[in-house]
Amino acid sequence: MNVSLTLWVLTIVGLGALIAIDFFIGRKPHDVSIKEAGIWTVVWIVLAALFGVGLLIFGGGQPAGEFFAGYITEKSLSVDNLFVFVLIMAKFSVPSQYQQRVLLVGVLVALVLRAIFIAAGAAILASFAWVFYIFGAFLIYTAWKLIQEARADEDDEEWEENKLLKAAERRFGVADRYHGTKLWIEQNGKRVMTPMLVVMLAIGMTDVLFALDSIPAIFGLTQDPYIVFTANAFALMGLRQLYFLIGGLLRKLVHLSYGLSVILGFIGVKLVLHALHESGVHVPEISIPVSLGVIGGVLLITTITSLMASKKQEAEEARQAEGTEKDSIDV
Prior knowledge:
Elements: H1 5-25, H2 34-59, H3 61-91, H4 99-127, H5 131-152, H6 163-172, E1 184-187, E2 190-193, H7 195-219, H8 225-237, H9 239-245, H10 256-278, H11 288-330
Antiparallel strand pairs: 1-2
Helix pairs in contact: 1-8, 2-3, 2-8, 2-9, 3-7, 3-8, 3-10, 3-11, 4-7, 4-8, 5-10, 10-11
């Protein structure tokens, strides 16, 4: 797409206005209900769909297809990232009424970081076509790593702070409790961080790691910086509400890692084929309709098999509990 500077500015201003509205609605700390989370999740999805339709009308089928493929992929990866957010919230014992503020700041940090990575990635890809090989190999490696982690069946219930975060805590000190949404307080004559600031830093640093996977993935579907940025923005902006909506459902998506590994591996192969094509090798390239079909199909199958497996496991646990209770009564 030939995107003018005016359209870039209008898009950024529009997204900024949506974020401001989101911040205004959630400015007062409160527990987010399922109804509120559900309504706003639908609103963000509808806005993304309308944007995609706008691309279809004014840009054609190719840009619209790339946007929807990128949006669905980024949204799927974001759902996987929610697992880590849950662990971080538990690690720092974030009160439920403050969790939405933490997530809102986390989303803002993610948008800024991804904008930087997208600009850098677009510049590199425009100058060095061989970088497609690196991106493709990285995604295939990430897909294999996801499968290995899923097969290991490790139940990591605690998130560990990285060295940079621990160094910040030692340098500035941390208050012993939350002080509303304040980030800094005076304690014993010294200015120290509150746990709220620490958890926001934790979310922000985690976003950096998430971007390392998601940016190469979407560049495998489109090399248009405008589509890459807007797909990321719309995928992230509904993440806060999605956290509260499917928080209990996350643990039921037991096959999500397998599904994401298939998607990342598929995009990695697509990138390698594109790189070979750019190098003059006559190889078939994977079209956007095929990409959309594969991504949507994998996510549908993953969701169905996950829910079936979770239901079977819950039934088995119920039978075991019933058997244990019966044995105790007999004794």
